[in-house]
Each structure stands twice: as structure tokens, then as C-alpha cells.
Amino acid sequence: MKRDLGTLAAAGPLLLAMSLSQAALAQKSGGILKISFFDNPASMSLLEEATGAALRPMMGVFNNLVMYDQQVAQNSPQSIVPDLATRWAWSEDGKELIFPLREGVKWQDGKPFTAADVKCTWDLLMGTGSEKLRVNPRKTWYLNLEQVTTNGDYEVTFHLKRSQPALLSLLASGWSPVYPCHVSPAEMRRHPIGTGPFKFVEFKPNEVVRTARNPDYWKPGRPYLDGIEWHIIPDISTRNLTFIAGKFDISSPYGTSVPLLEEVKQQAPQAVCELTAVNVSRNLILNPGKPPFDNPDLRRAVALSLDRQAFIDIIQQGKGDIGATMLPPPEGLWGMPTDMLKTLPGYDPDIGKNRAEARKIMEKLGYGPDKRLPVTLSSRNIPGYRNPAVILIDQVREIYIDATLEPVETANWFPKIYRKDYTRSRSMARRAASTTPTSNSTKTSCAARCATTPVIAMPRSTS
Predict the structure, then answer these.
(1) 229: in domain
(2) 58 in Cβ contact with 200 (< 8 Å)
(3) pLDDT band at 449 (very low <50, low <70, confident <90, very high)
């Protein structure tokens, strides 16, 4: 995940680069970037959120210790560069990671940034500090982290239980901002304070998230923009129409299908429209702690029922790849090769054979045409989730399962998953280099790259 809204995150840098190219690369300061956005964030606190609805607007408010180089298209351990840290070094046994920190950096309320802020942040994430997060989506990222210690005001050390080279990749993620010690988690939900290029201004639910240029940003000459406005328009058709009408500079790609992209290109030929790979997978999550999916045979039957290529063909007109947990190559560095992938349950391209095996399993468990299994399928209430959920409902019907769709609003989505308050849910998960599935859930990827995502930008001169 890219971060630092000196450029935009994920699809954003590509869009900004396209827009600026239309102005002959004249990087003049000023202007408000207006984006039509897909959904409401639950809060402004990145450490407590798990969806792009919060991540996109708030990344520019913060900095990381390290980040991925924004000029390198593909994130990798080799593209990690310093941010609030000036460099890093590993101990000889690989169990200590030392970061000297930048001096002279200030929080957006004027207080100095110090090593104590880094320690406070990871004490929050580990649950060992005096303050507590309301929810902690990435606590498992740091199970191998024993503690963070300070050496004066401008050096910190991450002490690990065992060597973990991939920790650096997690720290470079957009989900790893540094928080201020002097601002409570409750206040960070409402009005976050960071060290980043943009300051939080306001969040009006169902209307807009506004950020403004940080005049005291520690990177000289940045950011170029005076601010960014994220206008919340959940309906895809309305988003596209307002973009075509010229009200926005960038249209959110979430839920935009290939046919819709073609419509935009026809109606707004001056727009810059691209298909790009994104590091997101569609997942079916089964809760093995609740009947009936506490039975591994039933979970296997569901895995065998899935026609992953159908998701890609129906939703994205074939423009996507099948994969497992990791982003498939060539965009992904750690994705499983195709020949190996086909050996996994449900990945054999012979869908008829897979479903015949699944029906035999179901029949052994007592299900059949006259005794079907009713289940509730929970899905986030946005098109990127709902549309695949409808396809999924149709597919599992082939193995005697009748699923009823339960739409869940974004603000309630992660808390519901966090509480394991589901039997079966349809999710989209963003990958990090070293995250692993939790032991209390089973994820079956339906299309490892969430197809190729259309991104749309309107050429605009800066002033």
C-alpha cells in the first residue's frame, strides 16, 4: 500500500501523474483536488479502522517511520525508504530493529515529534499502554513484537521475540502511521493530529471529508495542493454522472466496472481512464467457531463449489486473475504460481468435477435436493461487495446451500467481523507482505486480484 498524500495512495499517484501531465508537468502550488468517494468512514482513526473509506482520506494526515518509494510502481522490500526515521539497522541476531528519528518535526498542533510518540503508538497496537484502542484490526501484525524502547528523544528500537525481516514491510504500509502521545484515541477518532502534508479539517457523514495543506510540513515545498476534498457518493451512477459533468477531478474506482468505464470514456473523452491492478482480493470468510461451518468437510465443499473465473468474467469482463492469499504475478511478488495454484481444493479449472465432489460431501453430511442448508451471507453494503455476493449465492445453490444476503453498513462491518458475529461473510481484503490468515477464520479467495480496477481522472490545469 502506498502512502503519503504528498501524492495520493494506491490508484491516486497514477491519477495525479496523469492529470499533471496534461498541464505539461507544470507543478504549480495551489488548488483543491476534488474526489468523488465511495463510502463513509466509521471514524478518522487509522489505527482503529480496516477499510479504504478511512485509509484514503487520512493517510495524508500522517507519516510512517518508513514508507514505500512513491516513484517505484511495484512495492517490495527493496523500495522501502525512510520517512519519520532517517535510516534503520538490524542487530546481528535479527531481533532488534533500530530507527534513528528526524529532528525538528512537529505535530500539526505545534508540539514536537519525539521517540516517545513512536513508543506510545506501538504500545497502543500491542495493547500494553495505559490508553486502549476501541478496536484493533492489526494487533496480530505485532504478535512477535516484544516491546519498543527509546534511546533519548530521537531513537527507538523494536525488540522482537524472534527474527522477522518482513516487519519492515508492515511498517511501510499505509496502516502503520505514527500517533501522537498527547492526543487520546477517542480524540483521534474525531479530529486526528498527525505530522503529514495535510491537516484534517472536517468530516460530515454522507457529505465530505476535507483536509487542508499543512503549512509547517517538514518536507520542503510539499504538498503542492491547498487541500483535498473527498465527496461521499455511494451510488456509482451518480458518481460517474457528476464526474462526467466536471464536478470532480477524480472518480473513485470502487464498484466501477469495465462497462461503466467504457461509458465514461464515451461521454467524457477528455478524461484519463485506465485499468490498473490493485492489491485486493475477494474473500469468502467462514466462521469455524459456529455451526455448521465448524465442520471442515462442509468448508471444503464450499471451497469446491466456487467458480472463480465466473466472478472475473461477469464483474470485470474477464480482466482479472485468479490467485490465492497473495497478489498473483506479475504484479505480485509472492503470489503462488498457476500450476501450484491448481492443486488447491476448488482451484481445478474443471468446475463440474469440483461441484460433483462438493455435492457428494454435502450428501454424506445429510444434505441434498430435499434437505438444503439455509445460511445468512453478510456483505458490506457497497457494490464492490454486494455484486460478488449475489454471484456467490447463485454458485453455492449448486451444492444445496440457500444463502440469504445480509447487507451491513461500512461503519458496522469491521466490528461485526472482529466480534466473529457471522457464520459466513463476503469480504475484500487488502494484502500486506507478512500478514497471515487468523486461526479462527477460513478465507476462500474468489478472485485474488479484485479484477483490474478502473481509475478515472479529469485533466485539469493547476493554478
Answers:
(1) no
(2) yes
(3) very low
Looking at the fold, whether 179 and 285 belong to one and the same domain comes out as: no
130 alpha-carbon distance from chain centroid: 28
Q: To which H or E segment does residue 229 belong?
A: strand 227-232
198 domain-assigned? no
Residues in the chain: 463
Cell 472463480 sits on residue = 308
Tally of CB atoms within 10 A around 92: 6
Identity of residue 98: I
In the sheet with 208-213, reading across from the earlier edge strand, the strands are 198-204, 208-213, 227-232, 32-37, 250-251, 452-457, 272-277
Tell me, what's the pLDDT at 4? 30
50-87 tens-digit pLDDT: 988 999 999 999 999 999 999 998 889 999 999 999 99
Tell me: do 31 and 150 sit in the same domain. yes
What separation in angstroms does the CA of 216 have from each of 198, 222, 317, 462? 10, 9, 47, 22
369 prior amide bond cis, ω within 30: no
Q: Let me know whether 23 and 154 are in one domain.
A: yes
Do 18 and 186 contact (CB within 8 A), yes or no?
Answer: no
Handedness of CA 65, 70, 71, 76 (dihedral sign): positive
Beta-carbon contacts of 18 under 8 Å, excluding residues fewer than 6 positions away, are 272, 274, 457, 459
Residues 414, 394: Cα–Cα separation, whole Å: 25
Alpha helix ranges (H) inside 96-235:
115-126, 167-171, 185-190
The helix (H) or strand (E) run that includes residue 35 is strand 32-37
Q: What is the distance of C-alpha 23 from the center of its chain?
A: 31
Using CB atoms within 10 Å of the CB of residue 22, give its burial: 0 to 12 exposed, 13 to 18 middle, 19+ buried.
Answer: middle
> Cβ(227)–Cβ(199) under 8 Å?
no
Euclidean distance between CA atoms 379 and 345, whole angstroms: 24
pLDDT given at position 118: 98
pLDDT band, residue 423 (cuts 50/70/90) = low
Q: What total number of domains does the chain contain?
A: 2
The whole domain housing 322 covers 280-452
